[in-house]
Amino acid sequence: MISFDEAVAIVAGAARPLGRERIALDDAAGRVLAAPVVARIDGPRFDVSTMDGYAVRDGELGQLPRCLRVIGEAFPGAPFGSPLEPGTCVRIFTGAALPAGADRVVMQEIVERDGDEALFATPPGSLFVRRRASDFAIDDVLVGAGRRLDARSLIAAAAADVDGVEVFRRPRLLIVGTGDELVAPGQAAETAAAIPESISVGLAAMAVEAGADVIGRQMLADDLPAMQAAMAEWSPRVDVIVVTGGASVGARDFAKQMFGEIELLFSKVAIKPGKPVWLGRVGERLIVGLPGNPTSALVTARLLLRPLLDGLGGRDSLASLAWRRAILGTPMEQGGDRETFWRARHVDGTVMLEANQDSGAQKTLAEADLLVRQRVGQAALEPGSEVDVLDF
Ligand SMILES: Nc1nc2c(c(=O)[nH]1)N[C@H]1C(S)=C(S)[C@@H](COP(=O)(O)OP(=O)(O)OC[C@H]3O[C@@H](n4cnc5c(N)ncnc54)[C@H](O)[C@@H]3O)O[C@H]1N2
Ligand code: MOO
């Protein structure tokens, strides 16, 4: 049995990006950049007005009041074509390019207009000009490689005037639930020995958050030949298979056998919950085995599957394991011989351990928003002590 840190190191080693592809910017939300987005134009492209008003030569307003002749209009996309002559100004709107010679915009609220004359009597304040390339210049990197494209970075990428981006390929994931007792949620009440297959819907949500493409969820009864046939059929279409249940030593625990020849990267980690978690490789496919107990499955998915999917998809595989210090609001008993990840929740700035720490708990999962890391043999802690926590 290996330690949690050893398991994380093995996961990080296996989590190499799968490949790259070029896609339309319109399809890029949530994708991870494989190459930086470089500006094809300056931003802004020219000096532009930041107000609706009048574009003037600043020097003309040395002495107020001053009257200038309005010789034309400048709109965004429809600039005023000629330079400003002395004694003139141009009606201008927010976002329009300044005419040549103009270096200030006066807000229309403080200008009195009379026919083609504009009267400037009030000190005009700021210049109200956004300079060419003051945001970014042509060839600047606007979004760096490795960044997951979100609302903010997509706006910057579009402003760079690119219609496509190079991204990492998303890991294609199959989630397999094993167990004769499992039925789809909504079907259990009618059958005495059945329980809802509850884990895969949660794992799929986590995988999507990690940028993976969940191409299938499959429930399999504990029937080895049928399991082997199903895996042979799915395998060519996926990069990662997550199998829940059958990880332990039960008579019908076939999770590993159904893959035939499997290279195990680890099998069993000294953690609680989730000791039977395993990682293997079949050809180019990675197989993650999670324990069937739902809390064990989600804790091990959070701690090991999430980093794996992040890394395969081109992100820093360890970024999601951002432990931070927080104050305990309940007592914590002494650590055992496995590292323990207590389910807990934030209440008024403190960390409250959940009362139900059963690895089969499911209701508690809906409440817990933190994992608290407790080292092997760590001394018991009183409320007010500092602990390491991770968003769950
Ligand atoms: N003799 C031993 N027994 C067990 C050991 C051990 O070391 N020696 N380890 C225990 C630990 S720790 C865990 S965790 C569990 C994990 O067992 P499996 O991965 O083999 O899980 P199953 O036996 O298939 O199922 C356990 C439990 O979870 C329910 N389950 C399974 N899959 C789902 C699902 N997709 N949705 C909802 N619930 C699911 C299943 O019905 C069982 O109740 O083994 C201990 N035993
Ligand atoms: O180590 Mo298991 O995940 O507790 O029940």
Automatic annotation (TrEMBL):
Protein family according to the UniProt entry: Belongs to the MoeA family.
GO annotation, biological process: Mo-molybdopterin cofactor biosynthetic process
Keyword Magnesium: yes
E.C. numbers: 2.10.1.1
Main enzyme class: transferase
Domain MoaB/Mog stretches: 174-311
Keywords from the UniProt entry: Magnesium, Metal-binding, Molybdenum, Molybdenum cofactor biosynthesis, Transferase
PANTHER family membership: GEPHYRIN, MOLYBDOPTERIN BIOSYNTHESIS PROTEIN
Taxonomic superkingdom: Bacteria
Protein name: Molybdopterin molybdenumtransferase
InterPro entries: MoaB/Mog-like_dom_sf, MoaB/Mog_dom, MoeA-like, MoeA_C_domain_IV, MoeA_C_domain_IV_sf, MoeA_linker/N, MoeA_linker/N_sf
UniProt pathway: Cofactor biosynthesis; molybdopterin biosynthesis
UniProt catalytic activity: adenylyl-molybdopterin + molybdate = Mo-molybdopterin + AMP + H(+)
Requisite cofactors: Mg(2+)
